[in-house]
Every structure is written in structure tokens, then in C-alpha cells.
Amino acid sequence: MSNVIEFLDAMGRNAQLRHAGAADLALALEQAQLDPALRAAILSGDQSRLEALLGARTNVICGFAPAQDDEDQQEAPNEDEEIVARASAVRVA
Fold it and tell me: Sorting pLDDT into bands at 50, 70 and 90, what band is 59?
């Protein structure tokens, strides 16, 4: 499987290979010595067949969240701390 991943990576990095005609792409696939089923899926542009052959998942999600500064966390007490502070103030009075 690593051969096909390496080939797809090379295809993504190389504009000539990415936009190659069917004959040039077939030659490159043959030179990469990929399984005939994988070659056929890549040549036909059949993403679902390629995913099935590789056992890949199609629903992959990547998310980012903004980082919080340590100073911001120290300056703003959370709700639990505020409740304890108020309860302590009431007991003292």
C-alpha cells in the first residue's frame, strides 16, 4: 500500500504528472509497479473504488481552536471560584 501512497503523493507534488494524459499516467503507474486494480481506479479517477481498495475512510475532519493565553486564564476566574468567593464574603459579614 505504501507504493500507491507514494505515487499519489508524487502525483500531488508534480504538476506534470497531475495533469498528465491517460497514456502518460498509465506509463507512470506501470513504472510504479502498482496493483492492476489500483492502476485502474487511479486511471479512471474512481475515488470510491480507490478508497475501498486502500481501506481508507472518506469522512476525515480536521479542526482548529484558538489557543488561550495563560494570562487570560489567570485573570478571569471561572464561575465556581466566583461562587466560592461570594459565599465566603457572605459568611464573614
Answer: confident
